[in-house]
Every structure is written in C-alpha cells, then in structure tokens.
Amino acid sequence: MRETQRPGGLLYALGDLKPQIDPTAWIAPTAVLIGDVRVGPGSNIWFNCVLRGDINPVIVGARTNIQDGTVVHVAYEKYPAIIGDDVTIGHAAIIHACTLENRAFIGMGATVLDGAVVEEAGLLGARGLLGPGKRIGRQELWAGAPARLVRQMSDEERDSWGVIGPRYVELANRYREGFRPID
Questions:
Q1: How far apart are CA 137 and CA 168, in angstroms?
Q2: Number of folded domains in the chain?
C-alpha cells in the first residue's frame, strides 16, 4: 500500500494517521479519506463518499466498491469499520463501526450500525436499518427498518448479483484511463 494515490480523492492525515491506498485502487476526486483508512487492491470509492478513520481504522478489502455518497465511520472502544473483499455498498449507505464480510451486499440508502455484522454473501436491502450488534447470516436476505430476515438466498441468486463487483472494477479502470475535467 502507499500513502498517496492518483487520480483524485481528498486525502487527509489526522496526526500520524494517514490513508493507505493500494496503487490499483481508484478513488473519485470528490471522495474524502481521513486518518487510518486502508484501501485494498482493485477497490473503488466513488464520488462524495467520506471514509473517516479518526478514532479506529477503516479497512477496505480487495475489489470492493463503495458507491456515491456513502459514509463510513468508526466508534470508540472496539469498533473499527471492517469491509471485506468483493463487497458492494450501494449509493448513500451509512456504514458505522461494523463488519461487512467478503461478498456482502448493502443496498442503496441502507444503514449498518455499531458492532453489527453482515456475514459472507449476506444482503441488506435498500433503505434497510441493521441495528447495533445485529447479525445477518451467510447468504441471508434482510430488509426493512428495523431490518428483519426475509429468507435464505440460493447460490444461484447470490451468483446473479456477483457480477456487480467486477463491473465496478472495470468501470474504475475506465475512469482511471479517461476521466478528466473539461476546460
């Protein structure tokens, strides 16, 4: 990992804490990363996202996409924000001091709160609210506010939305190559 990257992203140190971004990750120019934020290979963080690792770390795995307007923050005590590999976080989500395991899917406008866990390939539907300390099991679909278990997803269902992550990696590469301001 390296401490600076291009193109884009507003990167800020907080004391000795600095963002660390893998050179293959793509950060949109209006995304803000503050403090101890670690972004893994092939991940992409889109426009107007804020990732704030000020009192605990924000850790983003490989090939994860964090879509426009999402906020990722941490809490005191034992609550970092840990986001695994191949995770999709929809537009305008709030991810607060929780754990999203590999291949988790968080719908647009959803909120995941302190100490909550979304296990591997778990899905929280759009505008869902997963309260503090709650847990979505492996391949479970939860929805609502407060979120409740809807059903277990089949492998076929899970695989059908598994194409989103690779498409965002591809899109990030397109932005890396051709995104530029117009004079």
A1: 25
A2: 1
